[in-house]
Every structure is written in structure tokens, then in C-alpha cells.
Amino acid sequence: MSRxxxxxxxxxxxxxxxxxRTGARGGSVTKTKSSGRAKAKLVPAKEREVQFRVRELxxxxxxxxxTSVERLFRVDETxxxxxxxxxxxLDRRHGWYCEHGVECPAVRQARRIGEPNRHHNGxxxxxxxxA
Length: 131
Ligand SMILES: [Zn+2]
Prior knowledge:
Helix content is about 40%, strand content about 25%.
């Protein structure tokens, strides 16, 4: 009795385990991580003191007469007393972008100055049609 049971069980169990290990563990682990991180980084819940000061510069003077840059802003960012300067461009083709990239927080600050109508409520269509 005992001999038959032992040999039968161990043989079957061994085969099943091996098959599961090699088959189920594919490369499905890595994909989920990267996409989740990228979005989480954009919304930092910091309680730092961040200040932005935006000044408009002369785009043609800085970038040349034939530039596609329509407007140019210098954004001084101050985080906990440490200053950092940004140059934010409004380009005819590419839209708004900072020298550090499109997702740089300075872009939002410059846009608030550069196109105030879009961020206010929709009241402007009474008198603000002039370009
Ligand atoms: Zn920047």
C-alpha cells in the first residue's frame, strides 16, 4: 500500500510544479510600474514656499527677427529662498514651452500672464473680441 501511494503522488506533483513555474512567470511584471510613476510625479503635494515672478521679454530681440517665437517670458522661481530662472516661450508652431521642457511648472505661470483671457471666466466675449 504505502509504496504505491508515495511513488504515484510525488511523481505527479513534481511534474505539475515544474510546468507552472516555467509557464506562468513570464515578463508581465515590469509594465505597470513606469506608467503609474509618471503621472504621480506631476502632482507633488509639497508644502514648500514657491513663488513665481514673471516678466515679459522681447522675443525678437532674444531669438532673432525670423523667429517663430511670438512671446518670451522670464520666470523667476523661488523655492525656499533658492532662486531658479526659466525662459518660457510662446512659439507659433509649438505653443508654450520652457527651456526645461513643456511640463516645467514655469510654463503655467507664464501662460497666466500671457493669455489671461483663457483662464478667466467666459465673460470676455462682450468686449474682448479685439485682437
Ligand atoms: Zn523651466
